Amino acid sequence: MELVDHSDATRSVITFCRALRSEGLSVPVSNVFTYVHALGVLGVRRTSRVYWAGRATLVRRPEDVETYDRVFSSFWSGDESWSAEQVSAIAVTRVQLTNEDAGSSEGKEGDLAALRYSSAEVLRDKDFADCSPEELAEAIENMRALSVTAVVRSSHRWRGARRGFRPDIRSTIRHSMRRGGEVVHMEQMRRVPRVRRLVVLCDVSGSMEPYARALLRFAHILVAGRTRVEAFALGTRLTRLTRQLSSRDPDAAMAAASAAVRDWSGGTRLGDGLREFNDRFGVTGMARGSQVVVLSDGWDRGDPEELGSEMARLHRVAHQIVWVNPLKATPDYEPLAQGMAAALPHVDRFLPGHNVASLETLLKVLAG
User: Fold this and answer.
1) What angle (nearest 5°) sits at the alpha carbon of residue 206, between those of residues 204 and 207?
2) With 50 as the cut, is the pLDDT of residue 136 above it?
3) Which domains does the chain show, CATH number per domain?
């Protein structure tokens, strides 16, 4: 049987999605795959089906419907039906993607498969500093697929349990009084689990400009995605951003955070910022037993001795300090900056943070 060339139909779908992006719509690669699956199920002989499949999978906000309608009308103008070759092409593409998702297909190629790897996978490993504005926006959008797991620890509170770690004398006596003082069963108790707090300190100074936007978006994913997360911006001053980043709407959260940070892309005084954090929040309770993540390249205009001293204070009360430096991924990188050198003795884990893949690794470290 002759193999159908599906490049034309596939390219049409991809080009249509790119046209939507050029008009301001956010269309992640995952939504493109969903669109192709939908077309494979519904068929593409009728323009109305192509329209509603895209409307359901590619439009994420009500205010984007008008733009979608305009682009669709312009792009598919005059296409009342698709040819048999195009129908077969979409079916081939859908089967190909389905097989790949099931893990039973190897070595199959095609424009959408190439898009899957050359876009999603390449952007996953591409340095944020090397991304174009469009690529950075898509890489940030791909962060939504990251798995955020809360770490549970034992608290100082105890409660009754069928299988516990120590006897519950009070409950045992109380139950025995109902039986004339006879102890029939020894009640048990165990510690109440509690989510370990996570504190994120994000450097927004000028030297972090190529990474600050992506890392602040990562902080938003953490704040909005799990409980007991606190976020701060570090520059020439300390700015608490937990409330601003709590919004489920990423655009609203980033706009609120940007408005709150008055020293964006300014200087860096990490020691001063950490001292304020320790005095007002950290040592007094927020950092005690918490995981603390510092997102910074370590370049500091302040006194490195002060930075080292404040890091030591923080390390004494925190459960774990993870320093994430985007520059660590650079070949032959050495922590020669005075600030970074002063902080490292008080850091439990030192990781890169230059792309989506490195942030995924960070989440695995935090999850234990």
Assistant:
1) 95
2) yes
3) 7-120 (no CATH), 152-195 (no CATH), 198-367 (3.40.50.410)
